[in-house]
């Protein structure tokens, strides 16, 4: 019953590396170990409780037998005082029976008391060891979670700004440059077309002036 923690020590120690090698989740496994240890402690508590109950029962039987032996002795004295020797003799015989019973029960009681004391001590050791293992489990869980987080972050950072991402930025930069070049070209074309329109307008204006001068000449003005 009390060998379980030895097995748990082995698992948490040497077998923990094996679990990690097999890609088992150490956090889940540690939680499972703690649940098994709690169950073992509950079983041990139930066994100790039964032993303590048996100890108390034997203690009561010892006291009852001793009290009866003492009572029979008092009754034997009263019987003698009243002149009833036969009754006194029978009282003393019954006293002897109860005294022998008390002695036998006391031996069993002392053994049960010793066993209960030993098992209570072992149970306390189990609980102390459980608390130590729980603290170790919490530390291991924190380390495992930290390692997982670091691994996840490292994997994310390994792909951050990679060739694919850089290539995408380069392509977008080329697109922007192309848009800017097209905008400048359209602006130049617009400016060029506007200059041509101005020159054509100027030509048209010159024709009007010539025509106006011809009319004035015709009218003698």
Characterize the structure shown.
Belongs to the PspA/Vipp/IM30 family. The chain has two domains: 4-160, Helix Hairpins; 162-221. The mean pLDDT is 80. The termini are far apart. It is built from four helices and no strands. It is mainly α. The chain is rod-shaped.
SSE map:
Layout: H1 4-21, H2 26-81, H3 85-159, H4 163-218
Quick structural gist:
This protein is mainly α. It is built from 4 helices and no strands. The chain starts with a helix and ends with a helix.
CATH-defined fold name of the largest domain: Helix Hairpins
Average pLDDT works out at 80
Number of domains: 2
Q: Describe the global form.
A: rod-shaped
CATH architecture tag of the largest domain = Orthogonal Bundle
Family: Belongs to the PspA/Vipp/IM30 family.
Biased composition (Acidic residues): 198-208
Keywords: Coiled coil
Protein name: Phage-shock protein
List the main descriptive attributes of the protein structure presented here.
221 residues; mainly alpha; Helix Hairpins; 2 domains; 4 helices; PspA_VIPP1; Phage-shock protein; coiled coil
């Amino acid at each position: 019953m009390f060998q379980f923690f030895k097995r748990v020590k082995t698992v948490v120690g040497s077998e923990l590396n094996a679990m990690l090698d097999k890609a088992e989740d150490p956090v889940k496994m540690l939680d499972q170990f703690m649940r098994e240890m709690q169950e073992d402690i509950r079983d041990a508590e139930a066994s100790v409780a039964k032993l303590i109950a048996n100890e108390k029962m034997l203690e009561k039987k010892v006291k009852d037998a001793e009290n009866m032996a003492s009572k029979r002795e008092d009754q034997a004295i009263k019987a003698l005082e009243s002149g009833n020797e036969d009754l006194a003799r029978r009282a003393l015989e019954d006293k002897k029976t109860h005294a022998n019973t008390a002695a036998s029960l006391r031996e069993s009681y002392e053994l049960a008391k010793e066993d209960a004391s030993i098992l209570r001590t072992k149970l306390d050791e189990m609980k102390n060891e459980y608390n130590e293992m729980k603290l170790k489990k919490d530390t291991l869980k924190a380390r495992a979670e930290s390692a997982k987080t670091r691994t996840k972050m490292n994997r994310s950072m390994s792909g951050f700004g990679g060739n694919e991402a850089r290539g995408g930025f380069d392509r977008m930069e080329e697109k922007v440059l192309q848009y800017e070049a097209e905008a400048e070209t359209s602006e130049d074309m617009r400016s060029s077309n506007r200059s041509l329109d101005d020159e054509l307008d100027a030509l048209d204006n010159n024709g009007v002036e010539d025509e106006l001068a011809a009319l004035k000449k015709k009218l003698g003005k």
